[in-house]
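Continuing the series of single-chain predictions for the mutant panel. This is the parent chain; the variants come on the following pages.
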Amino acid sequence: MYLGAHIGISGGFDEAVRQARAIECESLQVFSKSPQMWAGPGIPPEAAERFRAAVRSEGLRATAVHHGYLLNLASPKPEMLERSRRAFRDEISRAELLGVDALVFHPGAHLESTKEEGLTTLVDSLRRAVSEFPDGRARLVLENAAGQGSALCSTFEELAFVLEHVAAPRRLGVLLDTCHLFAAGFDFRSPEGYGSLVDRVDGTFGRSAVRGFHLNDAVAPLGSHLDRHENIGKGQIGLEGFRHFVNDPRWADVPGYLETPLDNDGYARYAKDLATLRSLVGTGRKPRPRRRTAAPAARRASTVK
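Parent structure:
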């Protein structure tokens, strides 16, 4: 796994790359603007070029932009939906200008509509985005939810439904947040639980769709549906859950980004979390790749009529 972190851009995009490498990141995630804004100032082409050049010179293995927090591509409210789609198009343009590998986004919430209606709206939003950027390089990557409120895609079946119905496998993918998985009820702390988790991936949207991880411990207990991040090994997941991920050869070429808590010491806690994750590599029982089965039933059968 390419281990890295989410780094701020207050010093510039290229400075974020240098800060990432200073704490030995192999991968980097950034916001392209304030996550609390619908639209941000344009990215000067020269700033984007400096970022791309820094990524090359520093040897980062993977890069991503994380979309802001206001987006809801599944909203039943026409005005909110159109505003979200417009913001999504803008964010795709920014990701393409920066030349990152992925644009990570939250699938959204169905609010007062039904889950089926919300998923259908989300699919339509993503179909529109894919059609407007047919030659886009940045993969659009759905992040699994913790299951709070009416948030969509806390289950693998819902993620599989979206990927199947957008039907653009080269443009879409999935990012799995470990805190969100745990909060949604996936217990991967034991070898058996971890093996079951990977089997569920294989049986729904498929392992090849996994384009990244957010590596976060969890403050709240299993199945809480609360999205509360903790530093690695300090929360309810503990070291064993992360040991499975970093030793699994199936994720060797997949980036993992820290989003763990920071303090006034800059990225010192990130550096400690990265060191902790690397200390787990080569220890414990290495997960065995399981035999591939027939095409997942969830890819053949829709959860929404």
